[in-house]
Write a structure and sequence with these properties.
about 120 residues, mainly beta, six-stranded antiparallel β-barrel
Length: about 120
């Protein structure tokens, strides 16, 4: 039995915030080697919305019990799936799901809009 690996998403307020995120949602964690601020940056995306934040990689942003982007960077080739497990104020905790097949079902709702903050 494998031990679950958790990461925190940071920078959410620079994109869409956390109000639309719910436990059980699927996300994609994608290496971002061209990031000018962090050579081990991992961006977090939700198709079709796009980038919603980054995996925390600082002692100030990685909650206890979570791994930093630097600790997981070499554990996958280009991208890995994840499931939102907790949404607490401006912090989102994601469990990595490296062996799961990524399937995204898009349900179109006409009265929902996403705005950048």
């Amino acid at each position: 039995m494998e031990i679950p690996v958790y990461v925190a998403i940071t920078g959410l307020n620079h994109y869409y915030g956390t109000s639309f995120l719910k436990p059980g949602q699927l996300v994609q964690l994608i290496k971002d080697p061209d990031n000018p601020y962090d050579q081990e940056a991992i961006r977090v995306e939700i198709p079709p919305i796009g980038k919603i934040g980054y995996v925390a990689n600082s002692i100030y942003t990685v909650p206890k019990g979570c791994r930093s982007a630097g600790r997981i960077y070499d554990s996958f080739e280009h991208q890995v799936g994840g499931i939102v497990r907790f949404v607490i104020k401006d912090t989102v905790i994601v469990e990595l799901t490296p062996k799961s097949e990524e399937v995204f079902i898009i349900n179109l709702i006409t009265d929902v809009t996403f705005s950048r903050k």
